[in-house]
Amino acid sequence: MRFKNAFIPTLKEVPADAIIASHQLMMRAGLIRPLASGIYSMLPLGYAVMKKIMQIIREEMDAIGGQEFHLPSLNPIEIWEETGRVEAFGDILFQIKNRPYVLAPTHEEVITNIAKNHIQSYKDLPQIWYQIQTKFRNESRPKSGVIRGRQFTMKDSYTLDSSWEGLDKSYDLHSDAYKKIYERCGLKYFIVGASSGAMGGSGSQEFMVESVAGEDTLVICSECGYAANLEIATSNAKKIERENSSNSLKEISTPNVKTIDELAEFLKIPATQCAKSLIYLNDKEPILILMEGNDQLNESKLHSLFGMNIRPAHPEELLELTGADAGSIGAIGLKNNFKIFADKKLEGRNNLVSGANKNDFHILNVDLNRDTKILKYLDLRTVENGEDCNCGKGKIKITKGIEVGHIFKLGTKYSESMKANFLDENGKENPIIMGSYGIGVERIMACHLEQNHDANGIFWDKSIAPYLIHLICVNSNSEKVVSQSEKIYSGLNEIKFSVLFDDRKDISAGFKFKDADLLGMPLQIIVGEKNLSNDLIELKERSNGKRWTVNKDLIIEEVKKFFS
RNA sequence: CGGAAUGUAGCGCAGCCCGGUUAGCGCACUACCUUGGGGUGGUAGGGGUCGCGGGUUCGAAUCCCGCCAUUCCGACCA
Asked: How many Cα neighbours within 13 Å face the side chain of A202?
């Protein structure tokens, strides 16, 4: 492609709306342009990258026996009503105004509909069906460029099996295929165990890319490979042992002490010697939760233990329920008969400091065994950076991640609600056992950019680069330089190497270099007067800045060598 | 959906508080000259419903009200 004819609208300045690196680079390098919030046009260079990514996905899906479909995005709302997902998706589901249709945010319903009509027997199974399609989700807050949009491209696949063992097999095939896809795209990723949540089924994993732009907080251990969402992560945080003797309770005045840190400072004790009390209302029933010192309560864990209707009490409610404000609440001397739960780390502790349920007073020497009725010790704390991992070897690192893939053992949720059954060997009717698996195509591109750039621009991996080579004719006024670069251009075209040829006239050398670095093709070939007078052509590897020269007659061989 | 900010040329911004010539700057764009290995320098140009609607006023980019859009923080995210 000749740059002169190419539509590559690069920008010198960063658009004010773009905050994260990948979004800025996509805008500056002319890969995308916004149309509306969360909706982007893919420009030729951006779409070239998408096509490369989609091709890699196709090859790996085909390799595990996947069959490619192209399913409609416009769906009759009734199939979504059958599975109860009109309500489940709520506002996320785009609904068509002048006909009872929806824009599909995913395709379990359509797949199950086809399966219902055409899968009759265990002999028809297993199946792996996939497609690469535009998905529509009415995100309330699109953000981070293409990472969270209202319209995006997804490879989604679905497996149909006659047994749970078959599902495990299909699931593992996908897991392996996904690993290959990310590796081929040059992404550093890791796999996070996830709970199956409201999707139902027996398991799910997320494929995450570490990034400051990530929306998920992740916990990883460098030693054992443990990786989990912070919401469910656990660690081997140091537990303090019970002291040999428990001293007797003593109420003391602690004027103006509100926080654990202030309390620890006031009493000259470690924060870990304090028991922090939190009041939650579980469907209006107050419960008291004890945490050690500055440990943070993990509300996700609370929700999975108590359900979604649990919430922290408001300040007025605190005062009414305990007679004290936050900071002076404790497990001893409560007016009401609270149910008390405590974090596992506090199990068996004594000589603790706790609020006295009287403003500006605390109680010393609390022995949880002796002085309180703890209903149950639960894992409630949020894991913190630097704690020991459960494996005993590594330390926990907390980081942000972007989800680039999710694989799910669905089970029979959809086949049951839509009555997609098959006859087994015994002639008995059973619901098809399903799995569903997704990869965000634009997210792969964005994550690749997050991981592969510097202050000047992109460096594409050769597997997904829009062009392998950026050929720069430095001096467009020099006959010799122009004819030499033309010669290299046609030579590379002959051997089918994709080249972006900067043949623009009257553009200064610096401008071309800056554009080349911004656009990020893996190899730059620089044809300029100085080197050419010695019959030399310069090459530059974008990712590491390495430069070298070769004789002009050896350039094709050198390129072949570089990409071999 | 809650909180905040912003909206002036393709992009980045100033002007607004304190209303008053023809709305300004940088980049980009057009023409010419210049330069020619890291976003050359210059001259001359083109491009604006000042987000939309209403109000106050002799007069509104500027003040007031409503709406819309965009971004950020939070909630939500099968």
From this structure: 10
CB atoms within 10 A of CB A88: 12
DSSP per position, A378-416: E--BPP-TTPBPTTSSSBEEEEEEEEEEEEEEEETHHHH
Tell me the per-residue pLDDT of A345-354, one tens digit each, with 9 for 90 and over.
999 999 999 9
Q: Which residue is nearest to nucleotide B73 (CA to C1')?
A: A141
Closest CA to A39 of A139, A170, A162: A139
Could you tell me the distance in Å between the CA of residue A309 and the C1' of nucleotide B2?
19
Element (H, E) at A473: strand A469-473
Tokens matching residue A419: 């009555």
Which nucleotide comes closest to A34 if you measure CA to C1'?
B70
* Residue pair A192/A373 in contact by the 8 Å Cβ criterion: no
Report how far residue A64's alpha carbon sits from residue A336's, in angstroms, rounded to the nearest whole number: 61
Structure tokens at A62: 């085909």
The nucleotide lying nearest A530 (C-alpha to C1') is: B37
Torsion of CA A342, A344, A347, A352, to 10 degrees: -60
Q: Nearest nucleotide by C1' from A15 CA?
A: B11
In tens, the pLDDT along A406-465 reads 999 999 989 999 999 999 999 999 999 999 999 999 999 999 999 999 999 999 999 999
The CA–C1' separation of A14 and B62, in angstroms, is 28
A230 CA vs B45 C1’ separation (Å): 59
Do the beta carbons of residue A209 and residue A187 sit within 8 Å?
A: yes
pTM here is: 0.88
The answer to whether residues A146 and A152 touch, using CB atoms and an 8 Å cutoff, is yes
Per-residue pLDDT reduced to its tens digit, A269-287: 999 999 999 888 887 788 8
E-only strand ranges, A230-360: 250-253, 275-282, 285-292, 310-312, 339-343, 352-355
Q: Using the 8-state DSSP alphabet, how is residue A199 labeled? A: G
Highest mean pLDDT range out of A316-330, A366-380, A546-560? A546-560
